[in-house]
Specification:
This protein has about 190 residues and is an alpha+beta fold. It has two domains: about 100 residues; about 70 residues, Alpha-Beta Plaits (2-Layer Sandwich), CATH 3.30.70.
Length: about 190
């Protein structure tokens, strides 16, 4: 009987339900953000599974609002959960670093050192001579795992701090040269 009394109490209505709506929105929007990223990366089997749970959670949250449309705290909790879920979803995606990117570097300087440094880091590099707005340039392309972006940018900034670069997502890659993980065997 005490549980029923708590369910019908003012604390439940004005504090507990808004908190549940907020947490449900955080979860479903976080899942939505990650699902969209998986779709854009071509992960077609994981995205529908995430969508299933995302919608169940959303239905729970929206049903509470529809049953209590006179409670403004529910709306606030819903909106705050949406905003927080976006933030958390983007943060999680950044930490997961799933996928591959192309880094395009355009430099007016001699790119010999930069090319050498990237090759020493075991990054595949393609480069071409081109003509820019202010004269001859060298365009370098390297395709790397997202988790290696900072390492490559560090090499670029150390070897050619004024180089212009762009980073773009790559949906799929076939073959290529990537840094190998170094496996160290224990010496007996």
């Amino acid at each position: 009987m005490e549980l029923t009394a708590f369910y019908h109490s003012e604390i439940f209505k004005w504090l507990f339900i808004p908190l549940l709506i907020f947490l449900a929105r955080v979860c479903d929007v976080t899942l939505d953000t990650v699902r969209i990223i998986y779709i854009s990366r071509g992960m077609k089997y994981l995205a529908p599974l995430i969508a299933f749970f995302e919608i169940i959670i959303w239905l729970i949250a929206i049903s509470q609002i529809m049953m209590n449309m006179d409670n403004v705290y529910y709306y606030i909790a819903y909106a705050a959960g949406f905003a927080t879920g976006n933030f958390i979803g983007i943060y999680i995606e950044g930490r997961m670093a799933i996928g591959t990117v192309v880094i395009r570097v355009i430099t007016q300087r001699d790119a010999t050192d930069l090319i050498k440094c990237l090759k020493q880091g075991s990054y595949g590099i393609t480069y071409v001579d081109a003509q820019g707005a202010l004269g001859p340039v060298k365009i370098l392309f390297t395709i790397v795992k997202r988790k290696n972006i900072e390492k490559v940018l560090s090499i670029i900034k150390n070897c050619n701090p004024n180089a212009f670069y762009t980073i773009e997502d790559v949906r799929s890659v076939r073959e290529g040269i990537y840094p190998q993980k170094i496996i160290r065997l224990k010496e007996s």
